[in-house]
Input
Amino acid sequence: MAWARALPGRVHGAAPRCRGLLALAFIPQSDFRRYRVGDKCQKRAVLGAGAAVAPGRMRGRAPCTVRCRDRGDRKEAAAPSRFIEQGKRDTNMNLKKYFIRALHRLQKGPGYTYKELLVWYCDNTNTHGPKRIIKEGPKKKFIWFFLTLLFASLVFWQWGILINTYLSYSVTSSLSIGFKTMKFPAVTVCNANPFKYSEVKHLLKELDKLIEAALERILQPAEGDTISPLPPNVSQALDLELWNQIPLVLIDEHDRDHPVIVDIFETNQTGPGNQTAAPPVTSNTTSEGKKYKLAVKLCSHRGSDGCIYRNFTSAAQAVTEWYILQSTSILAKVPLRERIRMGYQAEDMILACLYGAEPCNYKNFTQIYHPDHGNCYIFNWGMDEEALNSSNPGAEFGLKLILDISQQDYIPYLSSAAGARLMLHQQKSFPFLKDQGIYAMAGTETSIGVLVDELERMGYPYSDCTMNGSDVPVENLYSEYNTSYSIQACLRSCFQNRMVEICGCGHYMFPLPEGVNFCNNEDNPGWAYCYSSLRSSIRDRQFCIDSCKETCNDTQYKMTISMADWPSEASEDWIFHILSYERDMSTNVTLDRNGIIKLNIYFQEYNYRTISESAATTIVWLLSNLGGQFGFWMGGSVLCIIEFGEIIIDSVWITIINIISWCKGLKQKRARARYPDAPPTVSELVEAHTNLGFQHEDSSPVPRNEIHLNEALPPEPGTPPPNYDSLRVQPLDVLDVDSDAETE
Output
């Protein structure tokens, strides 16, 4: 930076209109420009006491001001601001220099070759083995190189096994037993029969006629090889249109290669596929001699040849399956409110209730409609009220129920089992009684002792479980009940969604998506074929299994069940009288042993088991084992790995610089090939600027016939002499005159 010495008088030619005192010995010229020059303000610098002060002595002194007066104005400029700005400029300059040096360092690289870098690493690393390779003789060098390579391979092999074990995310299960006051489980009770037969008989009347007529023809005694023709009055009384939608057929397997299909209500022999034949009498046919099977015929649409036959080993199974399919189609068209009305009501089914020492009744139960079992009632569901706690273990502190299942009003062909279906589950969860429920037999007292198991699974990546089902790609159709997620709800929702997608309608046993109707024979003639194909499809079932996830936290209730006859023969008279009077206000006995069930549900003990998962391998386990293997085989540590990483970075650095240099060299080679003449030097450019007669040397070869003409001429120097005018060509007389003038 240039500096101006402060002397008395004018500063930079300003007019002497104002005088002042500047107590500085040296002032940067750039700082003088900070003052107003256009205002014709005189800048005078007067040395204090007439002495010049060195610039170095002014550092660290108190700030001084330059005072100027122009037309009565007084202005002051503070010196510290200049020094602050000067410090900022110096800081920016230092940063610029630092980044320039860093850039030069990056361009230069480590400054080693690959060999030098490898020797430096072997000589300075803390890992055992590499030092001996460069310091020992040829034989030992080879031995140490082999041992180092062998043990390094073992280390990497062990590391691979450890990392693979860690990434498998295996878990270990631990069992712990605790003691606490527990919530009493939600108890769902249903009747095994979904509807009262007296209420649905008008809907199933035609269906019952068909199955009764079919059973008569199946069980009729053998009369030769044909079935007796269907009487005209019987055929007119039957709804054969309903039968033909999903018919029952007999399959004659006397000739296994050519089985004959026999329609039960077919009277004319129309060919091998519809040939009529009489089945043998059931009582006279051994299991080895059975050649007839009852099957359900399912077609994609009416009159189609693409039909399947669902075979059954027993006619009882076939009749039940056929009746369920037909009744499903009929009941699917009945509104939900009407179906609830046709089921068993709580005040008729729940005769007595006692929880601990507190009485309860049917009003303490929550009613839901279950497609499999009709009206079901849940105790302690926790939807509207807080869940109840059990005060003590034992049968005296549990739930006691007396149920009336009204077995005499069962649908004969729909429900082959009699009793109550019950299930214990968590609060706010939907009961899937068909999968997890148990039966309580009529005429018995069933005692159920409960033990609690709590499952705690680890989430991703240790297991593919979900906390609340929000990450499951399946729409939960059971969310309309405001229940929690479960894998059973997910599987059924997935199946229903697949059926809606493939069949165009929903099954009666599962909730419906919005805008979809239940399947029935009138609107969807081929729904049973589609449903059966979808249910037996392994691919579709696997799709739903892969889409659904288990819950991470679950509570399971383990039950110990015991039964005894109830009431006893000695006490049944007075018990039935009391229960009949309480239900019907009748002095007559309206109940019997075939419809009464007593239930006792209680905690066996307050000990609960918690089965929890924990990670079998953690990051601490991984680092410990990696370090142990590295230290055992090669005596290394983390710092040795850092050293190895450093040499890798330097090697990559050198490689990049070499590639850049090779690319630059290749670019220059291409440029030289495009322009063969060498570019002019700096001296030639300067000479061409000062000497108008200068000509660049021609690098092209001179013909041989002109060589002798140029031999007398001295070669022109490539670098001009210091005196550039000496290269100009001048006449000899001019040179003599100049020399004479100089001598004079």
